[in-house]
Amino acid sequence: KSIIDYALHQGLTIKRTGKDYKIEEIAGGLYIDMDKNRWHWWGTEKGGGPIQFVMEMENKTWVEAIKTLLNIELSDEVKMSLTEKMPEKKGKLQLPEKDNTMKHLFAYLTKTRGISSKIIQEYIDAGLLYQSANRNCVFLGKDENKEVAYAFLRGTNTERRFLMEAHGSRKEVGFTKEGTLPRVFVFESAIDLLSYQTLLMRNGCKEELKAHFVSLGGVEKGVLSHYLKYHPDIKKITLCLDNDEAGRDACKKLAAEYGKNYLISRHKPRAKDFNMELTEMLEEEKSKEVTKEMEQESCGKEIL
């Protein structure tokens, strides 16, 4: 199977750019070379063939990815010609239908991701987060006029990875939260942003929580540039990008670009990213608590 077949089967929007095809819903610039049946994700510097593509999109093993590709059957509607440029979707931002229960959103963000329910509720109250009718988390971004201009969807089903930007999103707006301190913390994803705020809260760093927070939606710098333009009060930039090659390279480029006008610092996660750091910390705390309970239960028991 081709990567294009799989992408269309998943309902992704393909846009032709020269000889390559770009997946519109994925931030960071993911391009497909149809002739070579290869892909490259500039935002993460990952790439490969169809098997690696399925593994990355759905977090599957090599064997599971092969089974997925073998079982793909495209309908006549999906089998479209790719010889001409596909029509671009234009117009206003198309937000997914809202589900006011928020049940799956809270379960995914708190239990799977370890994020504080208090922080989640703050974003919901601020009109920056909600659950869609299809049970996806919808992270919203507001533009310079305080109007919603960006929406990023993340699936709550842990068995299947789902990420996409809503049609009509202004990519330069991104998922952000305004603060009152002249400092901005910068992340690759909304999940890492919320995880970092959870870590700050747990460590009693109330002052830092008053800062600005920006998610780049990968390692694209357009969001940060746009945000700084409309927030001239910011004097310090703290880069909290992933602890991998792509994150390190992005930090160097951002530091070089903004180092003359801003005080630049980097907070490197102990794990690959700050959500992984948070979940590993919570697992360690849980393990210690279980051990402590077992020790307390054994106290005073007679050993025969």
Please explain how this structure is put together:
The protein is of the alpha+beta class and 304 residues long. Helix content is 34%, strand content 21%. The chain has a five-stranded antiparallel β-sheet with strand order 1-2-3-4-5. Strand 8 and strand 9 form a beta hairpin. Helix 2 packs across helix 3. About 5% of the residues have low confidence.
Oligomeric state of shown chains: single chain
Enumerate the strands of the largest sheet in spatial order, edge to edge or round the barrel: 1-2-3-4-5
What is the H/E string?
HEEEEEHHEHHEEEEEEHEHEHEH
Largest sheet: 5 strands, antiparallel
Number of strands: 15
Report the span from N to C terminus: 64 Å
Q: Average pLDDT value? A: 85
- The backbone outline, from C-alpha atoms, is globular
Backbone CA Rg: 21 Å
What percent strand? 15-25%
Content-based structural category: alpha+beta
The total of helices stands at 9
Helix share, percent: 25-40%
List unreliable stretches of 5+ residues: 74-89
Topology of helices and strands:
Layout lengths: L2 H7 L4 E4 L2 E4 L6 E4 L4 E4 L4 E3 L1 H9 L3 H9 L27 E2 L3 H10 L4 H9 L3 E4 L3 E7 L5 E8 L7 E3 L9 E3 L5 E5 L2 H13 L9 E4 L6 H8 L6 E4 L5 H14 L4 E4 L7 H25 L6
Parallel strand pairs: 12-13, 12-14, 14-15
Antiparallel strand pairs: 1-2, 2-3, 3-4, 4-5, 6-7, 7-8, 8-9, 9-10, 11-13
Helix pairs in contact: 2-3
Concise synopsis of the structure shown:
34% of the residues lie in helices and 21% in strands. It has nine helices and 15 strands.
